[in-house]
Fold:
Amino acid sequence: MIDKQRLLAISNLKLAGKIEDMNDEQMQQYEELLIAFIENFPGDEEKIKNALKENLNEGIDYNVLKDNLIAMCKTLGRIHADDLSRECRKEIEELRGADREKIEAYVTGFLSTVAMLSIDIQMAKYLKTAKTAEGKEGGEAKTTAVQSAEAEKTILAVDDAMISLSMLKKNLQGLPFKLICVNSGKDALVYLKRHQPDMFILDIEMPKMNGYELAEKIREDGHEAPIIFLTGNSTKEYVIKAIQAGASDFVVKPLDKKNLIDKIYRHLYSPNV
Structure:
C-alpha cells in the first residue's frame, strides 16, 4: 500500500481533503492510476522529446507536440496534479507560433517537473517497504552528530561534472549549509574517513564508481545521513535500485532551486516527513 502521508507531502499533488476521505477501494483505484502514470511516463516523455526533434530544419511540428502535451495534461488531471495540468494547458496555447528556443525551454522545464513528480510518487510507493526489508546489520552504526536546526549543516556533494557542482553552490549560496564538493567516489570516501556530513548529494552517472556503488559504501561504513540522488532518469527500475542503495530522495536535473532547497530542508530538519 502506498504511503498516504508521503503523498500528501508532494506539493504538485492536490490531495488535501480528498485522500483522507477515500475508502480502501477508492484508494486502490487511485493507487492504480498513480502506478500507470509512473510506468507510462518514460514513454510519454520520449514522445514529447521526439516531437521537438522532428523537422529540425523546418521547425517544430506544433500539432504533434500539442497532442502529446494534452495527453500528458489529461494524465496529470486524473492523478490530481491539478495545477500542473492547468498550467500545461495554458502554456500549450501560448507556445503556438513561438520560436524553438522558447518552446524547448518550456518543455524541458515541464518534463523535469513531471519527472520529479513521478519519482516522488515512487518514493511514497517503494521507500518504506525497501527500508523495512533492509533492516539493521553490521553492528552499531555511526550516527551524525546532533546539531540544532540553527547550526550550519555540512553537505557532501559528489559529481564528476564541475558545472553541476557549480550550480549546486549557486543555488545554496547564502543558506546555512557548508557545501563540500568532490569529483569522484574515491575522493568522497577519503573525505569520509575523517568527517561525517549531515547529508549527501550524489550524482548517479559517474565513471569508475557510480552513485549506487558510492551510496552502498557509505551505508556499509555506517553513515546514516540522508542521501539525495541527482538524476535525469525516472524509470521505476532506476528508482528502486537507488532506494536499495540507500536513497532518501531525488532531485531531477536540470536543478530546480526551490525543489532542491525544499528537499534539503525536509531531510535535514524534518527527517520523518
Q: What stands out?
A: The beta strands are 153-158, 177-182, 199-203, 227-231, 249-252. The longest strand covers residues 153-158. The chain has two domains: 4-132, 138-269.
